[in-house]
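=== Structure Prediction Worksheet ===
Name of assembly: unnamed complex
Input type: mixed (protein and possibly other molecules)
Chain count: two
Listed entries:
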Amino acid sequence: MAVLNGIPNPAKDGLLRLALAERHVAAGARFAPFAGWDMPLQYAGIVAEHEAVRTGVGVFDVSHLGRAWAIGPEAGRRIRSVTTFDVTTIPIGSSHYSLYCNAGGGIEDDIFVYRVAEECWLIAHNAASAEADFVRLAAACGDMAREVTGETVMLAVQGPQATALLAKLLGPQCAEIAPRGCFEIEWRGTTVLFARTGYTGEGGGECIIAAEYAPAFWDALLAAGVVPVGLGARDTLRLEAALPLHGHDIDPTTEPYSAGLGFAVTLDDGAPFTGRPALETFAAEPPPLRLACIRATGRGGVFRSGFAVLDAAGEDVGVLASGAFSPSLRTSIGMAYLPSVLAKPGISLAVDVRGRIEPAEVVRRPFVHGSARRG
Amino acid sequence: MEIPGDRRYTTEHEWLRAEGAEAVIGITEYAQDELGDVVFVQLPSIGSRVSAGAAFGEIESVKTVSELFAPAGGEVIAVNEVLTEHPELVNDSPYDTGWMVRIRLDDPAAVNSLLDAGAYRTTLPPGS
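=== Predicted Assembly ===
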């Protein structure tokens, strides 16, 4: 894989332009600004794209995610000093979800850490916090940290047919490794970093490739029948899978345990990392609030972020952190922090949809089981 | 983009097809395309009144919510109940099976002040 420094080229109106922008235009994309990037919002339509990922295979250009390498002696221990998960326990050729927390235990960003070799790590950051995240990473890793967002393209290929398709395109190892496994593989003269990860609940993986080879890779995917999918469906898919979105479901004022992200925090190794004392305090007590999955039981309107959540007595008990129409369930879904006593499957609630009180209930997470669980 | 000549339009992308003293109201091809996948349509009850230029309902797509504005005033005498279960008809057939309400016009002559198909087309972005 080409490891180069650089930043993306600014497009007109100050937005960053994807390396594959022309391919997206050719595929019929409608664009919208997101975290400073000019991103494909949809192609054929959000529902059709969503269904393609749930029943077949779709591709998302997620090159807006910040990507950085950390390569060198003790890089893992250094990354660990600024993230919540003990990344040094990640086996070579695997990956894990982790968090950057602040001193108060609030979530500054959620990230994915890939261990490609003993001390060769790739870290994926959310676009909105990518700059601050890289500063944080570089503060820990010094010049071992190298930002490669602009030089690479990241494509998520997701759906029940995605793993088989990637195995055919890149190599059978794509289907042989366990979920979260990652490795580098040669493809038409370049190196692709493949990881069996994603943000939809479906099988498949994410591929990072040098930008100059990305158009050919994109073309090969589309020629194999993969459907291009925009940010609109990415949001409905991740919400059905009950995966949190930073800036909505988690942010610097929320801590990991209420969000159900305790699996991303390691405390038993004793190693120092930013936020540890606060997180130890949170871990000692059951969280007073929990991020609950809420599903409409009527048909009165789309749940959207910011809508008030009411209990059976009509009292305000929370606010939707995320909300959307679920194309798979044909009804509204959302997530909200609720008092723990209410955050239990079967509890009846209501959501205030612009003045209309729409019935809802707490359901088990996730809303939809994708093919990732079925293997 | 299709703009049938048998009806009138508003700059808010509703259409109205007059049938004597009654009129059927819906949204245009351009409107449904801008909204994307329609998932909920909130319509008034039969017997209620709508006023020209005022909101009479809401339409929601996966990505956004919009108010529906009445091109003319009158009493609601029918609503398209099928849209409750099949809101996607607004996308599939905005000028026909995706209609929204039928009203008894307060003033049938007022329809003439609405845009005709040619005038409505000039309000759309070039290339629509």
